[in-house]
């Protein structure tokens, strides 16, 4: 994966391949979120739909 970019519809396996195992996983209403923290303390949250694919807010 180039530039470690996340795109709507990507499966969890591709996200884990790019970023590694998440620092934290949360679930709510059948949806899962992966939480990553870098060495500078910045956080990134990646949300997945009920099918395990990336769900970017505002896109269907």
Describe this entry's structure for a reader.
The chain is α+β, with helices and mostly antiparallel strands and 60 residues long. It has a single domain (1-60), classed as Beta-lactamase Inhibitory Protein, Chain:B, domain 1 (2-Layer Sandwich). It contains one helix and three strands; from the N terminus they run αβββ. The chain has one helix at 12-19; strands spanning 24-28, 31-37, 43-48. Strands 1-2-3 form a three-stranded antiparallel beta sheet, with no helix packed on it. The longest helix has 8 residues, at 12-19. The chain is globular, with a radius of gyration of 11 Å. The termini are far apart. The mean pLDDT is 89.
What's the total number of strands?
A: 3
**What is the CA-atom radius of gyration, in angstroms?**
11 Å
Could you give a short account of the major beta sheet? Answer: 3 strands, antiparallel
Strand order of the largest sheet: 1-2-3
Tell me what the CATH architecture is: 2-Layer Sandwich
**Total of DSSP H or I helical runs spanning 4+ residues:** 1
Q: Stretches where pLDDT falls below 50 for ≥5 residues?
A: none
Count of the separate structural domains: 1
CATH class: Alpha Beta
Alpha-beta content class: alpha+beta
What does the average pLDDT come to?
89
What characteristic shape results from the CA principal axes? globular
Order of helices and strands: HEEE
The CATH topology: Beta-lactamase Inhibitory Protein, Chain:B, domain 1
Into which percent range does the helicity of residues fall?
10-25%
Strand content: 25-35%
